[in-house]
Write a structure and sequence with these properties.
CATH superfamily: Vaccinia Virus protein VP39
Shape: globular
CATH architecture: 3-Layer(aba) Sandwich
Order of helices and strands: HHHEHEHEEHEHEHHHE
Strand content: 15-25%
Helix content: 40-55%
Distance between the termini: 46 Å
Structural class: alpha/beta
CATH class: Alpha Beta
Length: 276
C-alpha cells in the first residue's frame, strides 16, 4: 500500500499521476464495480460508471438543476472517465466539454462518449480546474462531481468557473464540507458559501445528501474485505490508494474518523456578477 504523502502543498501534476494510476487500474475491475453496486443498491449509477460517490439520484438532480438544453453547451470540470457528464448530456440534450488533469481519464472519457453514442456533441481535453484554457463567458452551465476536494486553491477554482460561464448560468456540483483536512489531501473548507459568493455566484441550493455517510462507510468496509481481489485486478498501486483512502477516512490509520467530520453536499450556484 502506498505511503501517505503530504499532497496538501503538492502540484496538480502529482494528483494527476495518482488518478492516472487509479483510472488505469480500475478500468478492468469487476470486483470494484460489484462493491459500488452492493453499497449503493438501486441508486448506483452503473451506466455512468463513476469513480466517485455520486448516486443516480444525484446525477438526475444535476441534470435538472443545470437548466441547459439542445443548442447549449456545458462543461464538466474534473470529468474523470466521462460517464457522469455524459449521462447529464443525454438527459438534457446539451453538448458537453469535459476537462480533466489525467490523460488516462480523458482517453477513457473519449471512448465512453462513443459507447454513449454522444461523440458527435462532446469533447474531452486536458485542463486544470483553476486554469481550464477555455474562453471567457462561453458556457451555458457547469457541473463537477466529487472533484473540487482535490483542488488545492478552491477559491481560484470558483473564479475560473465563473470566468467561463455566461451571466445567469448555473454551476452544479457535489463535494464535501470538511471540518478537518485529512492527511495527504489538499486543504479543505468547512463551508463553500463564501468562496462562491466572492467569485460572483448566488447560491440557490446547498444540501447535505441523504444517506451519504452510510453508503460511503459501506463501500469502504467492502473495500477492506475484498483487498486481495482488488490488488489482483487493479494492481498494487490503484488498489493501494483505494485501500489507503478507506482506512484513513474511517479512522483506521490515525484514530480520527474523518467521515464524521464531513458533510457531503450538492450545490446549485448561479453566476450573477461579472467580476473583473
Amino acid at each position: 500500500m502506498p505511503e501517505i504523502e503530504n499532497k496538501g502543498s503538492s502540484t496538480q501534476s502529482s494528483w494527476a499521476e495518482t488518478f492516472n494510476t487509479l483510472f488505469a487500474g480500475s478500468a478492468g475491475s469487476s470486483t470494484l464495480r460489484r462493491l459500488w453496486r452492493e453499497a449503493f443498491g438501486d441508486d448506483y449509477a452503473e451506466e455512468a460508471d463513476p469513480l466517485s460517490f455520486v448516486t443516480l439520484t444525484d446525477l438526475r438532480r444535476i441534470a435538472r438543476e443545470i437548466r441547459v438544453g439542445p443548442s447549449q453547451t456545458f462543461v464538466d470540470l474534473g470529468c474523470g472517465s466521462g460517464g457522469p457528464g455524459l449521462l447529464v448530456a443525454r438527459e438534457t440534450g446539451a453538448s458537453l466539454v469535459g476537462i480533466d488533469f489525467s490523460p488516462v481519464a480523458v482517453e477513457h472519457a473519449i471512448q465512453c462518449a462513443v459507447a454513449f453514442g454522444l461523440d458527435d456533441r462532446t469533447r474531452f481535453q486536458l485542463g486544470d480546474f483553476t486554469a481550464t484554457g477555455l474562453p471567457a463567458a462561453s458556457f451555458d452551465g457547469a457541473v463537477s462531481v466529487d472533484a473540487l476536494l482535490f483542488v488545492p486553491d478552491k477559491a481560484a477554482a470558483a473564479h475560473e468557473v465563473a470566468r467561463i460561464l455566461r451571466t445567469g448560468a448555473r454551476f452544479v456540483f457535489t463535494t464535501w464540507d470538511w471540518n478537518m483536512t485529512p492527511p495527504g489531501f489538499p486543504v479543505q473548507v468547512s463551508d463553500h458559501h463564501a468562496l462562491l459568493r466572492d467569485a460572483g455566484f448566488t447560491v440557490e441550493a446547498y444540501e447535505e445528501r441523504h444517506g451519504w455517510e452510510a453508503r460511503q462507510r459501506s463501500f469502504y468496509r467492502r473495500v477492506s474485505t475484498a483487498q486481495a481481489d482488488l490488488i489482483a485486478e487493479m494492481g498494487g498501486g490503484a488498489a493501494g490508494y483505494t485501500l489507503l483512502e478507506a482506512n484513513l477516512l474511517t479512522g483506521q490509520m490515525d484514530g480520527t474518523d474523518y467521515l464524521a467530520l464531513a458533510r457531503r453536499i450538492l450545490v446549485v450556484a448561479r453566476k450573477t456578477q461579472a467580476l473583473g
